Amino acid sequence: MKSLSKFVFAAAALWWTIAWQPASAACSGKFMNPITDICWSCIFPISIGSAPILQMGQEDIENVGTPVCACGPPPFGKIGISIGFWEPARQVDVTRTPWCFTSLGGDTMGDSFSAPMPAVSQGNYGRRASNTSIYQAHWYVNPVLYWLEVLSETSCLEQGGFDLAYVTELDPAWNDDELAVILNPDVFLFANPAAQAACGADCVAATLGFPMPALQWCGGCQGSMFPLNGHVQSHVGGVQASSLILQRYAMKLHREFLAFAGNGIPGWCGMYPAPVLDKRIYKYSMLYPSAQGKGVDGRCCQPLGRTTHLWSAGKEYPIKGEDFAYMMYRKRNCCERIYGWVK
Which whole-number Å values give the CA distances from 261 to 21, 124, 255, 276, 334, in the listed order? Predict the structure, then answer.
């Protein structure tokens, strides 16, 4: 009888510890393994002009038609060949715990600044239950192809090292819908049933190919792109919600002129501001809690907005599998020099 009492007491103590442990202590993650964790096939297709040279079964958006390109007036400019590819250059954490850096091994730092604690909550409106959630996120500069010297003979890659560029814990608008409206006042145009119903078309388009850039307010199958903060109004699962946060994060930074595009003819000569984000210029793959393998579509990365049901099985699990890290691949069209100044 005493043994049973001790067992019940130990079980109750364990439940109390797990159930009431502060969320700030729950931080998990790992450093990316560039060999095994990155979806290397996602840099394809590689194209010259509009002609794909290496496709590897990967999807692509339109490329510049002409293979010959030029940057700057002669004799100070350059003449080259127009090359298209997808560059793995950005990394994103989406985490439940403020100051939890999933991509830095799950370390917690900087908690002297207060930030709302992300969570998932459930409400019941009439007969329909609705889950909502809030996450924090971190944006890293990570030009993998450059620092691994995979394509060391080209000037088309972003040159630099790994860097933490933006954390939402220091952004008051990330946790406040009213402050977020300052950055996205157009939310009032799309806060109606007709506009939200149109997002079904964006979901279908993203699942079959790429999302529809005209439907800026839609996050494809993941939900609404607005507000541009960490509040997810329809939380289905961690993979779905974190994929939506990733999209919002990219759009937010583009609107703040902190992220840039590099596709099309303007991309020939370098990156350029794109405050109105073309959602088609990014693809992404999961790094943590499990490196994304090939889903039912045979690919290990996907465009923004594509349904996560194709690849999310087993990617979220209790305790250590509820914080996420993603690699983002952005479309590049650049002018590889054959004559003129080096860069």
Answer: 42, 42, 12, 10, 11
User: Quick check: 96 and 118 in contact, CB under 8 A?
Assistant: yes
What does residue 145 show for φ and ψ, rounded to 5 degrees?
-60, -30
SS3 327: strand
Specify whether the CB–CB gap between 156 and 336 falls below 8 A: yes
Structure tokens at 173: 């608008």
Residue 300 to residue 284: CA distance in whole angstroms: 9
300: tokens are 């290990």
- Whether the predicted pLDDT of 286 surpasses 50: yes
Q: What are the b/e assignments for 312-332, b being 16+ CB within 10 Å?
A: beebbeeeebbbbbbbbbbbb
Q: Is-contact 83 338, C-beta < 8 A? A: no
Please name which of 29, 168, 161, 169 lies closest in space to residue 101, comparing C-alpha atoms. 29
Task: Specify whether the CB–CB gap between 285 and 265 falls below 8 A.
Answer: no
pLDDT digits (tens, 9 = 90+) for 288-306: 999 998 888 889 999 999 9
